Amino acid sequence: MSEKALQIENLVKRYPTGVEALRSVSLDIESGDFFGLLGPNGAGKSTLIHCTTGLAQPTSGTIEVYGHDAIKNYAEARQAVGLAPQEPNLDWFLTVEETLEYHAGYFGMPKRERRERVGELLEIFSLVEKRDERTRTLSGGMKRRLLLARALMHKPPLLILDEPTAGVDIELRLELWHYVQRINQEGTTILLTTHYLEEAEQLCNRIAFINDGQIAAQGSSAELARDYGVNSLEDAYLELVGRKELSRSRAEELASS
Amino acid sequence: MSAAQIRFLTLWRREVNRFMKIKKQTLGAPLLETFLYISVFGAALGSRIKELHGFEYIIFVIPGLIMMAWATNAFANNSSSILQQKFQGAIHDQLSSPASPLELLLAFCLGGFMRGLLVAALTFVAASILVDLPVEHILVLIPALFLVGFFFANLGVLIGVRAEQFDDVALAQTFVLQPLIFLGGVFYSAALLPQPFETLTRLNPVYYMIGLVRYGFLGYSESSVAVALLALTGATAALFLFNLRLFSSGYRLRS
């Protein structure tokens, strides 16, 4: 039996305003998976991620990261997770190098190991020349690279990427794809949220649809298409959000008839 | 060094690094401000007032200025650091780390505490060059200053956590902290005030903090040193525990 990287059971998140962002969500991600979480804006993707990483407090339900309860044993659970958030949340006062160095320190990494890892990641993400620059001076693409590098600093076995390629150019997107595919092959479990369906199709071996705070369906891209009785992941997604009139295959059928 | 020690030191180092990067604003400006107070109240007013309770006016004022420097800087540092990080979202990096609420709170507190300590120490050195400042009761002075610094560092954390915009911090600083300090007897002795101002001054908790520091330097006090020290210890502990509860519950930090 394979180890579970993330196990979520009956997770409910209700905000003080009364809004129920997550409604009894249950989800299993196996170690080594490249898991895609797809859904429209406001579906609950980021809330689920925030509950997993300690940025939001679940109302009820359980979350386990590699067997560690994310509430009771939060230190062990958070140690196992790296998060590259949707919105760049970099400290403007810090340089690129300091951003990585401090992050590793928060995760208890010793100095020598920190230095080596910083050098390694600056190299991988082509940030060497920017190492002494303050983060506020970086371009959007550079900030994305830094966010990903920061998430990887403490070598987490579970990497959460919340819309990592939103607003980045094609070159960087492909670069990021190659890198995350490589680390996934090397054993890192990845949870990816994205609005680019081709990205999910290309990268993920398993995908879940989330809508209105609930998991609507999950499986491989082909299984999801089959479940919705359509030919592609895109059409399955359009079925999910109730916009099948936007389907490209349907438009092609109409054009040819 | 254990992982927990590395974590705590990094959190604290980040806070110190933040204010050291903008030294002109965080250390230079408060020092200039204190120097201006010494000039105006010491040189200008001091030549008229001459003595207060047997001390040169400038010497009577300096202990309060040192306390004020520590208090305002500890407060300003923490309130603005936390709000700024909340504003940028950068605090998420610390909140999603394995750091405990206690580690996070202590690191934030000690950041402001250090800034206050540096400004107060530089003020002391500068004052000692200008006048002959005595230190009569060092065993009262050190705990009193440390408690004042830690109390205001915690107050800064509380305001920073509660604040949702920069106006909230400015409001607390301008309309609560500054009046309490200015009307707490930094520049005068409550015993010389007419009623009801004397009683009003004695109702101000900052008055007892200034009294403690002044006693440490000059050996002069208008109130019970032991009671003031005990009350300050209790208030600091209570505020710290309250903040710890906020950090543990994630109030305005975690959604």
Q: What would your notes on this structure say?
A:
The complex is a heterodimer of chains A (257) and B (255). With 257 residues, chain A is α/β, with parallel strands linked by helices. Chain A folds into two domains: 141 residues, Rossmann fold (3-Layer(aba) Sandwich); 67 residues, no CATH class. In chain A, strand 9 and strand 10 form a beta hairpin. Chain A is globular. Chain A starts with a strand and ends with a helix. Chain B is mainly α and 255 residues long. Chain B has one domain. Chain B contains ten helices and two strands, in the order H-H-E-E-H-H-H-H-H-H-H-H. Chain B has a two-stranded antiparallel sheet. Chain B is elongated, with a radius of gyration of 19 Å. Chains A and B meet through helix 2 and helix 3 of A and helix 1 and helix 4 of B.
How many distinct folded domains of chain A?
2
Distance between the termini of chain A: 51 Å
3D shape of chain B: elongated
Strand content of chain A: 15-25%
Helix content of chain B: over 70%
What is the overall silhouette of chain A? Answer: globular
- Largest sheet: number of strands, sense, barrel closure of chain B: 2 strands, antiparallel
How is the secondary structure organized here?
The complex is a heterodimer of chains A (257) and B (255).
Chain A lengths: L3 E11 L5 E11 L3 E5 L6 H9 L6 E6 L2 E2 L4 H6 L1 E4 L11 H11 L4 H14 L15 H13 L5 E5 L7 H16 L3 E5 L3 H7 L2 E6 L2 E6 L1 H7 L5 H8 L7 H9 L1
Parallel strand pairs in A: 3-8, 3-9, 6-7, 7-8
Antiparallel strand pairs in A: 1-2, 1-4, 4-5, 9-10
Helix pairs in contact in A: 3-4, 3-5, 8-9
Chain B lengths: L2 H19 L1 H27 L1 E2 L2 E2 H32 L2 H5 L5 H30 L7 H25 L3 H17 L14 H6 L2 H14 L6 H25 L6
Antiparallel strand pairs in B: 1-2
Helix pairs in contact in B: 1-5, 2-3, 2-5, 3-5, 3-6, 3-7, 3-9, 5-6, 5-10, 6-9, 6-10, 9-10
What attributes does this structure have?
heterodimer; A: alpha/beta; 10 strands; 24% strand; B: 255 residues; mainly alpha; 2 strands; elongated
